[in-house]
Amino acid sequence: MDDTIKIGIIICDRYRMCAGGKCMRSLRNREGAFSIYEGKEVELVGFAPCGGCPGGNIEYVPEEMKKNGAEVIHLATGMIVGYPPCPRIKYFSRFIREKYDMKVVVGTHPIPENYYTTHMNLGTWDSNLWKELISPTETDEKIRLSYD
Ligand code: SF4
Question: Residue 31 gets which letter from DSSP?
């Protein structure tokens, strides 16, 4: 039996030109939100932008990823650290779980330290909801610095 966990990544459309370097690196190193796969085989089977505000692709791309075998959708760290962070991220998570019965993880690579510092100073994440949303990618200062 193939135990490989197949995942898809959806990124914020504001970063649609991103080549995904930080996501690929952290997936390989099992860092940030990918630390949950430590010791496991993982295959990336889809990578797509949300389609731009208000995120129209969230309605469709999980289906294609699921057809490709994806069990888990990761909402990329860019949604958390953008200026401003995506206001719809919680809804996206609920929608994908409800419509496609897939697991959703908020985040991919560790939050880079420069974004972390700015948002901490702005008080962006001063709520229980945001504390929960950033927890998989908050990591520690040393790792965050390595993603600057
Ligand atoms: S802010 Fe949210 S809805 Fe807008 S482009 Fe980014 S991820 Fe998509």
Answer: -
Domain of 13, CATH number, reads 3.40.50
pLDDT tens digits, 20-53: 999 999 999 999 999 999 999 999 999 999 999 9
What's the 79 CA to ligand 1 centre distance in angstroms? 7
pLDDT in tens, 84-122: 999 999 999 999 999 999 999 999 999 999 999 999 999
Mutational test site, ligand 1, from 59, 60, 61, 79, max ligand atoms within 8 Å of CB = 79
User: For residue 1, is pLDDT > 80?
Assistant: no
| 88 Cβ inside 6 Å of ligand 1 | yes
Instruction: Report how far ligand 1's centroid is from the alpha carbon of 3 (Å).
Output: 32
| Burial 111-148, CB ≥16 within 10 A → b, else e | bbbebbeebeeeebbeeeebeebbebbbbeeebbeebe
- The count of structural domains within the chain is 1
Domain residues for the domain of 88 are 5-146
